[in-house]
Amino acid sequence: MTQIPTITEYYQRLKGHDWYFCWCDDPRAYKAGQADADELEMIAKNVGGKHAALLKFYTDAMISGDPWKTKKVDPPPAPVTYTLYDLIDLRADFEKEAIAILADQALIRLIGRSGEKLAKAHEVQPHQEVIQKVQWMAFYSDPDADCPIFFKNTPTLQAAWESGLKLGTEFIAQGEPT
Question: What is the pTM of this model?
Fold first, then answer.
């Protein structure tokens, strides 16, 4: 049996895979793509856990969008080791967004109902990007990892960490989320 790839190595294999090999006219490219797809599936099946989850998330992303008449799904981010500075930056981004939300609320109170239209014109999902980064960070981490101190005292970030850990542990326990 070949060596089990790390989650980072497996991610790189998924990223480099020819997801659309089945539409290729060249039989050699088709056979190579099919062999690679079979190997990726075998690894996910044999290793299970986060490898299986990553295959599912990446497959969902690669077969989404206009050609499939579905909403486009972004592939999962690559697993990375976050530094202390990365954690500080994530928390700072979260706090900047919180301040912007408070400023919008103050603007609405200051200029009345017309301020609501102005605020809605540039409204986005508050903290969504930061929350997703925290969730993926937790997903890729060790199942017993503690929530980083920079997130613990912020209920939204702590909840994001816990949901990422939960998704990872569900795949480890069952191979599929519940």
Answer: 0.78
In a domain, 50, yes or no: yes
- For residues 76 and 62, the answer to whether their CB atoms sit within 8 Å is no
pLDDT digits (tens, 9 = 90+) for 79-123: 988 899 999 999 999 999 888 888 877 777 777 655 555 555 555
CA angle, residues 145, 151, 154, in degrees to nearest 5? 135
Give the Å distances, CA to CA, from 128 to 16, 70, 93, 124, 156. 28, 21, 11, 8, 10
Residue predicted with more confidence, 19 or 167 = 19
- Spatial separation of the C-alpha atoms in residues 146 and 161, rounded to whole Å: 9
| Residue 73 belongs to a domain | no
Domain extent, residue 25, equals: 7-68
What's the one-letter identity of residue 78?
A
Question: Does 57 share its domain with 95?
Answer: no
Is 62 a member of any domain? yes
Please tell me whether residue 112 adopts helix, strand or coil conformation.
Answer: coil
Does the residue 79 lie in any domain?
no
Report yes or no: 134 and 161 within 8 Å, Cβ to Cβ. Answer: yes
Residues 88 and 169 in one domain: yes
At residue 79, φ and ψ (nearest 5 deg) are -65, 135
